[in-house]
Amino acid sequence: MLSVQQSILQEVHLTHLIARNIKFFVKRDDLIHSEISGNKWRKLKYSILHAEQQKFEGILTFGGAFSNHLVATAAVCQMKNLQSIGIVRGEELTKDSNDTLKRCAQYGMELHFVSREDYAFRNERMYQEELTTKFPSMYIVPEGGANYWGIVGCSEILSETTNDYDLVIVAQGTTTTSAGLLMSLPEKSTLWTVPVLKGFNALAEMKTLYGYAAFDAETISDWLSKIEVLDNYHFGGYGKYTADLLDFIESFYKETKIPLDPVYTAKAMFALFKEIEQRDIKNKRILFVHTGGIQGAKSIFEKEKRLFSNNPF
Q1: How confident is the model at residue 312 (pLDDT cuts 50, 70, 90)?
Q2: What does the pLDDT look like over 215-245, one tens digit per residue?
Q3: 3-state secondary structure of 215
Q4: Are 110 and 162 contained in the same domain?
Q5: d(CA 260, CA 96)
Q6: N or C end of the chain: smaller count of CB under 10 Å?
Q7: Is 121 among the domain residues?
Q8: How far apart are CA 295 and CA 228, in angstroms?
Q9: What is the CA radius of gyration of the chain?
Q10: Which of 94, 85, 201 lies closest to 132 in space, CA to CA?
Q11: Cα torsion at 183, 187, 192, 193 (round to 10°)?
Q12: Does any domain span residue 2?
């Protein structure tokens, strides 16, 4: 189906890090697949397997108008000959409203557009029961793949590395990837997460997610003791960015040939470099988990008329 062999562990040599005796590595999950890249594949992998084993006909999931998760779900379901249904936030939308929704439809996803008020109930038991009654042959996956299977899939990331880092850093949306990384993080390591949502209570969200996945309180407490949340690098909130962040993406790509996106990975990389400088960090082994999402950056750079040389988008 999909192979993670493409997700190489790349050592990156940057002058300002070498001067601090920092060994810097990037886990290139962005290379797994053009559409089903990064943590999108990690979070869907076992939900798809579970759906197949339980003889469901397809996957029903949720997302906004520009959801990479919806596209990834539609693409992997088509690949596996499964049906896909997307519950989309925004009743004013259609399958032709933007490139993201068009791609979902092209992959065969059946799109249902609901009001923002109704969408807010997507995780409520009564609403889920209504969906189960209406679509009994579909396996329901939460927005962003944020379920037990998603956590397990993301827990495999570090097993593909030497897993001996002082610091691991990742961008944070639903917290599923962070939750998976913490499960396999060694005692000596610390996880930094960079929420891309403004005013987001990352630790509370992770605790809730772990609870839904039926992990015990003592284990959850132990895992959460190894995380530090850097919540001042959202650049205004989800999907927001500044000229400085776009400049940073261009500069980083020219130095490393590694593309970043303004919604997730660039904010985490920017936070890492800023914190290294402010804390005067030295003599460390650091791993950056690249969670993909690059395809979503194209429209932003086109909108801002920033088609720099060797543009990766």
Answers
A1: low
A2: 999 999 999 999 999 999 999 998 889 999 9
A3: coil
A4: no
A5: 27
A6: N
A7: yes
A8: 28
A9: 19
A10: 85
A11: 10
A12: no
67-96 CB burial, b ≥16 within 10 A, e <16: bbbbbbbbbbbbeeebbbbbbbbeeebebe
Q: Domain for residue 3, yes or no?
A: no
pLDDT given for residue 296 in this prediction: 65
Contact 256, 14 (CB under 8 A): yes
Residue 298 has pLDDT above 70, yes or no: no
Does one domain contain both 288 and 176? yes
Q: Looking at residue 84, what is its pLDDT?
A: 98
Domain-ending residue, one of 136, 167, 191 = 136
Q: Return the residue matching tokens 């998603």.
A: 150
Tokens of 242: 């500044």
Q: How many domains does the chain have?
A: 2
Question: Do 29 and 141 meet the contact criterion of CB atoms below 8 Å apart?
Answer: no
Asked whether residue 22 falls in the same domain as residue 65, the answer is no
CATH number of the CATH domain containing 71: 3.40.50.1100
Give the range of the structural domain holding residue 130, as residue numbers without chain letter: 57-136
Mean pLDDT of the chain: 92
Q: In what order do the strands lie in the sheet with 9-12?
A: 9-12, 23-28, 285-290, 167-172, 190-195, 227-229
Query: Which pTM value belongs to this model?
Result: 0.91
Over residues 171-215, the pLDDT tens digits come to 999 899 999 999 999 999 999 999 999 999 999 999 999 988 889
Q: How confident is the model at residue 43 (pLDDT cuts 50, 70, 90)?
A: very high
- The answer as to whether 226 is a domain residue is yes
Q: Are residues 30 and 79 in the same domain?
A: no
CA distance 254 to 248: 10
Residue 102 predicted with pLDDT over 70 = yes
- Which amino acid type is present at position 232? N
Contacts of 228 (CB under 8 A, 6+ apart): 190, 191, 192, 193
> Longest Cα pair distance anywhere in the chain, in angstroms?
60
Q: Which of 66, 129, 74 is nearest to 98 (CA)?
A: 66
What residues have CB less than 8 Å from 96, skipping those under 6 apart? 102, 105
